[in-house]
């Protein structure tokens, strides 16, 4: 068994997670956050989307979806949007560092 390959554990496939990109409708379904609110958070610079051209739908990657879930959780806990965004930035920095260390293995 080759342990360098993460095929035996799909959750450890960071390349796949990096390439995973879904539309705003699916993101709304996954997170339970309305599309209008997702667009507002993007306008405020809390999350980023990818657009493949004019008139195409916004697409979000795994880390953006994770961010949306974290912000929603903090808002549900009573944080303001600004406070939640700041807290999520700190958490995302830590998640990114862990991600980097794991993918460097």
UniProtKB/TrEMBL annotation:
GO terms for molecular function: DNA binding; DNA-binding transcription factor activity. The keyword Chaperone does not apply. Residues 24-90 form the HTH merR-type domain. It holds the Pfam family MerR_1. Keywords: DNA-binding, Repressor, Transcription, Transcription regulation. This is Transcriptional regulator.
């Amino acid at each position: 068994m080759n342990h360098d390959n993460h095929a035996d554990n799909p959750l450890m496939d960071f390349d796949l997670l990096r390439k995973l990109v879904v539309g705003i409708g699916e993101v709304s379904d996954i997170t339970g956050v309305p599309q209008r609110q997702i667009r507002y958070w993007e306008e405020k610079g809390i999350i980023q989307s990818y657009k493949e051209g004019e008139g195409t739908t916004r697409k979000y990657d795994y880390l953006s979806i994770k961010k949306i879930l974290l912000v929603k959780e903090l808002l549900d806990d009573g944080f303001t949007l600004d406070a939640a965004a700041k807290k999520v930035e700190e958490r995302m920095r830590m998640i990114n560092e862990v991600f980097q260390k794991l993918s460097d293995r």
